[in-house]
Each structure stands twice: as C-alpha cells, then as structure tokens.
Amino acid sequence: MAQHQVNYASSAGLPIALTSVDKLVNWGRSNSLWPLTYGLACCAIEMMASGASRYDFDRMGTIFRASPRQADVMILAGTLSKKHAEFARRLYDQMTEPKWVISMGSCANTGGMFNTYATVQGVDRIIPVDIYLPGCAPRPETLQYAMMMLQKKIRKESADMKKNTKQDLTNQTGKRARLI
Amino acid sequence: MRKYVPKNNVQGKAYYTDRFWVSPRVPRTEVKDAHFSNVIDALGDLAKEHYVEIGQLVVHIDAATNFEVMTILKEVCGYKQCSEQSAVDYLAKDGNFELFWQLLNYDEAKRVRVVTRLEQGMAIESIVPLFKSANFAEREMFDMFGIKVNNHPFLKRILMPDDWEGHPLLKTYPLFGDEKASWYEVDKIFGKEYRDIIGPENRDPGKVDIEDTKRFARIGYEVPFGTEYSEEEQEIEYSETALVNYNKKASKTLDERK
Fold first, then answer.
1. B193-202 average pLDDT score
2. CA-CA distance, B63 to B98, in Å (whole number)?
3. Predicted confidence (pLDDT) per residue in B39-61, tens digit
C-alpha cells in the first residue's frame, strides 16, 4: 500500500504512509470480499468446501454472507436454468455497489454440457461477469485462485465505480458475428 | 458401387444405417403366476391384453376405465404404491400417446404395469384419490406432454416456468428449444428490445468469430484487445533461442557442394 516509505527519523518520527485514494479504497475492497452463499449445482459443493475449514476462505477475508444486501461478490456456482435466471438477476440487482461476479464452472460459463432448451447458455447473457473460472467442477484451490485474480483485478480498478467499465462482449463493429 | 450420399452434414445426422438391424424385443410370456392370474381374474373384461415381461405383469386397458382399474388393483389385489406414472409420445408413429402406471404390491413383492393409449387432446382421469404420489407425476405429465388430467387437485406446470410455451418431451419439440424458449430469459429480464444487444445464443461450442477481438486472436492478423478487426497482415516474429534460430531458413540446399 505504502508507495512512498517515509523516513521516520527525518520526519520527526511521525508514522506517516502516503498513498492514493484509489489504492487505499481498493486495498479495503479487495481484502474483504464477501461472496453470496448462492449454489446452483454441483459446483456449489466445491464452493462450500472452499469456505470450510480445510481450504478456509476466511483467512483471505472472504466470508460467505447469506444476504445479497451484505455481499459484494456473486459466485454463480453451477447450471443456471432458464426458469431460475430471473431470480439470479434479481439477487444480483439486490447487491449493493461495488459488486463483482465470478462465473464458476463450465455450466455457468457457456452452458457446458447442457446444450438444451432449459439452460442459460452462459450467465454472461444476463449478468456481467468479471472472472470466468473453467472446470467441471473446479477444485477449491481453483476457486481460491479465481478469488485472488479478482482481488488483483480490483486493485487495478478506480475507486470511482462509474469509471470502471463492466464486461461488454458485444462486437466492436456491432455487426453480426462472422464465422470461419 | 456404393450409392453416393452427401456428407456435408455428417456430424449432424447419421449417414450410415444398418438395413438389416432388428431391434431386440423383451420376451413376453403367458401369465402363469398364481398371483398374476388372480389379478387378471379380478380385472375381468377391463384387461384387454395381458402378458408377463421380465417377471412383471403388463395389462392393457381402455383409457376411460383407468380409475376403475386402479381401484380394483389397490382395493382387491393389494397394489398399495404407484411408483411411476408418465406417458410416451407415439404421435408420429400411431397418432396417440401411451400412458403407463407402475404399481407395486409390498406383500407379494410383485409389480404391475398398466398401459393405455390416449388420443391427442383427450384427458385422462386423475388417480390422486387413490395414490397420493400420482399428484406430482400427473403434473409432470401435463408439463412435459400437455396431457390434461380430469379432477386433479392442482394441475399446473411443475418443472418448466408457468409462462413457458410448448411441452418439451414431445418428439416434435426441438432439443435447443423453439424461438420463444431460446429468448426466454432475455425477454423476461430485459425485455424484447434487448434481443439485438445481447444477441442469439451460441449453441455451437466450436464457434470462432474472427471479428470478435475480445474473445479471439487471429495469428498473423493480431490487433490490440477490443479494437477493430483488421485484414492487415502482421509479420510473425520468431524468437531466437540458444539452440535453434527459428528465423533462419531451416531447409538444406543440396546444390551447395564443395
């Protein structure tokens, strides 16, 4: 955090650390990421294991919260069915800013093996995603790594959330996708 | 010579079929078991056809008599549990549905399958007064096939959302869903005007879009992340390692002789 180490001897022994507002705010944000307890399918088992004593998310300042009002990370762990998409979006909307989303596992990323009428083909169709975590199901270490990557991402962001652009994967040209 | 068959869609559909393939059938035997004979006697004329398949009695009945048959099987023959109830779509083949009920007798350790045929658009009588387990099974049958059930206490969709269109287990229903199904979550959350912004579903796991510079990079035509796609060719530079110089022409020229 401290960008400029102050020589205490020369500055009358004052414990001063200089930094920027962005860095200070992001230091706070990134080190207490509270995800929502929101399991959709088998990935949720790995997510629960990550939170439990063996893998221990608490030591990273990551504490699962049972209410979207208190959470700032949404881990979409599992297959999102079309019937449930509405409620997943509602939970996302209920979370207070700043908020981030991790799409955990193949099903959440692309629909995975459920290439059917009843499954949302990638949660990024309804919710902007920050981290895509591959795997079927990803191991708890992988989820921890995703959380660390999210922390890394947050540390690079601006403290003003309006300046941070959310995921936008629509084509730059706006043209229909061309296949090769 | 073998007949030519177009192979441009070989992954989509099978282009080779065995003409001599005969699908194996489950052997059917006459009813010899004493208990099953009693069941047939109790049903009397209600049982149109009956045989034993893998130690299990199969009884064909009229669709209109299903409640009567179930009552006899439960009250007289001791079949206290309805473990399974659903339908099979034979609309293309025979123009009707096959409905079946799977019943279990604890005391005799015997199972009976009651089978009937139901025309499309016709309704079946509910057996919920006899078997409580039929409640959800009949709702699922209504959800998946659109078969209505008379006198059901609460007949509504059970798996699909209430505002879903179509019945997914019908053979005419596409696997990836019809148009309404493919836009369901977008329409519901954002509204129809967002269809253009969000775009259609990607149902092809191997799809590569060369104009999408956020997801894909094209070797030889690289552009920075998120910028516009360009046809301008970029020269490929190879690294020079301690062992091999990839920039040097590797091929040997045989003409150079000393």
1. 83
2. 10
3. 999 999 999 999 999 999 999 99
State the pairing for strand pair B56-60/B81-90: unpaired
Query: For B223-244, what is each residue's pLDDT tens digit?
Result: 888 788 888 888 877 777 777 7
Residue A179 has a pLDDT of 36
Structural domains of chain B ordered from first start: 24-150 (3.30.460.80), 208-247 (no CATH)
Q: Which residue among B189, B205, B227 places its CB closest to the CB of A172? A: B227
Nearest CB to A170: which of B177, B197, B228?
B197
Report the C-alpha gap between A41 and A18 in whole angstroms.
Answer: 46
B234-243: string of b/e by CB count within 10 Å (b at 16+)? eeeeeeeeee
In the numeric block, the tokens 């473990």 are attached to B83
Which H helix or E strand runs over B139? helix B134-145
Least confident of B52-56, B157-161, B187-191, B214-218: B214-218
Type of residue numbered B168: P
What confidence category does residue B21 fall into, taking pLDDT thresholds of 50, 70 and 90?
confident
Q: In angstroms, rounded to a whole number, what is the distance separating the alpha carbons of residues B23 and A128?
A: 49
Output the CA–CA distances (angstroms, integers) from residue B56 to A86, B32, B49, B203, in the order listed: 45, 11, 14, 42
Q: Does the CB of A178 have a partner CB in chain B at under 8 Å?
A: yes
Q: Which residue from A47, A26, A27 is spatially nearest to A38, judged by alpha carbons?
A: A47
Q: How many CB pairs under 8 A join A and B?
A: 83
A107 interface with B at CB cutoff 8 Å: no
For residue A46, the one-letter residue type is E
Residue of A nearest to B198 (CA): A125
pTM (predicted TM-score): 0.78
Q: Do A125 and B228 touch (CB under 8 A)?
A: no
Cα-Cα end-to-end distance for chain B: 57
ipTM value? 0.78
| Out of B178, B185, B203, closest to residue A120 by CB | B185
Distance of alpha carbon B100 from alpha carbon B88, whole angstroms: 8
Indicate yes or no: CB of A180 within 8 angstroms of CB of B208.
yes
B contact test, residue of A83, A92, A119, A120 with most B CBs within 10 A: A83
Mean pLDDT computed over every residue of chain A? 85
CB contact under 8 A, B186 and A170: no
